[in-house]
Amino acid sequence: QVQLVESGGGWVQPGGSLTLSCAASGTIFSINDMGWYRQAPGKQRELVASITSGGNTKYADSVKGRFTISRDNAKNTQYLQMNSLKLEDTAVYYCNAKIKDRPWRTYDYWGQGTQVTVSS
User: Fold this and answer.
1) What's the mean per-residue pLDDT of the chain?
2) What is the rounded radius of gyration, in angstroms, for the C-alpha atoms of the chain?
């Protein structure tokens, strides 16, 4: 069984910074794409950023230039550095990883979610 454990959420004032972490543990043969999603109250879950096993990244237009996704393959961990946070970044953030947990399959795993609140 594989688990994704998130940390790093919290409260921050507009313009502030936070870094989220997501560590994968368990039976892991390899990890393909990793990513961060968020869901604000009353809205659908949306992709914030993603990173391939080779380090290629993609960002939602709303966070480009402010957020940076990275990963440490040796630690099976991904990060989301969030700078210049805005009120509209308030949401529950979920990490996702496509993990080969059996020789014959790759499965989508999700973290438990961590609340990020941007407020003055």
Assistant:
1) 97
2) 14
